[in-house]
Amino acid sequence: MASRANRLTRFNIAALAAGLAFLYLPIAILIVYSFNASRLVTVWGGWSLRWYSEFFNDTAMIDAAWMSLRVAVTSATLATLLGTLAAIALSRGANFRGRALFSGVLYAPLVMPEVITGLSLLLLFVAVNAERGFWTVVIAHTTLTMCFVAVVVQARLGAIDPTLEEAAMDLGCAPAHAFLSVTLPLILPSLAAGWMLAFTLSLDDLVIASFTTGPGSATLPIRIYSEVRLGVKPEINAICTLVVALIALVIVVASLASKLSEAPGKSAAPL
């Protein structure tokens, strides 16, 4: 009965096809129409790279894309550093006082609506009279993505035998040297996977960035949203196609890095 239930039937194939179509058909249509020669997004006018050329000649869009990349790289790096330290504290300091509270505060952004996170950060920046711009967006994205990095790194640390580090210290290594020589190389693929995940989340964030951005620091999602409100231009399809390609590449690399850090029979990261 189990083998019969796991068999690929027509119903299973139809359900799989319907699910994949629901998820990816709109994206596929967007990608196809990014090569449309017509100015009307709903009328096919033949194949052309015209709108990709328009994008690379649009100074405002290029500036927004450059801003998004700078924010994503900076926030992903900070999130990886802080998330790794938090994961080490939770994995190696299992009995410290306040661990449950620290863990709850760390993982709160995982389930917190982005509107609440963005609004609370906006109120914080207003309260401290901080000028909103590049660094406020970086801080906001670091707050959002740090917990994801902590989950990935903590999962890998949990799969590592702590006696390896203890053996290095027994042989004369200082704790910091033992971590850098033994533990860090073992968790390095998870650090790469966490960084790429944080980079992807930062790159396509709209809600939190819209609360914390300021004049001259609009990211690409904010710029696209402002353009779409006035009507969808074919250039938007080309921009979105490039973003989809970049994010797909980052996800593939992150998944490969996560697989490299996998212990036998254990998953290193929830990707």
Automatic annotation (TrEMBL):
Entry protein name: Putrescine transport system permease protein
Keywords carried by this UniProt record: Cell membrane, Membrane, Transmembrane, Transmembrane helix, Transport
Superkingdom of the organism of origin: Bacteria
Subcellular location: Cell membrane
Provenance organism: Bradyrhizobium erythrophlei
Statement: the UniProt record of this protein carries the keyword Transmembrane helix: yes
Topology in membrane: Multi-pass membrane protein
Gene3D superfamilies: MetI-like (1.10.3720.10)
Annotated Gene Ontology cellular component terms: plasma membrane
Pfam families listed in its UniProt record: BPD_transp_1
GO biological process: transmembrane transport
Family assignment from sequence similarity: Belongs to the binding-protein-dependent transport system permease family. CysTW subfamily.
TM annotation in the entry: 12-35, 64-88, 100-128, 134-157, 178-198, 236-257
Domain called ABC transmembrane type-1: residue spans: 65-257
InterPro entries: Bact_Polyamine_Transport, MetI-like, MetI-like_sf
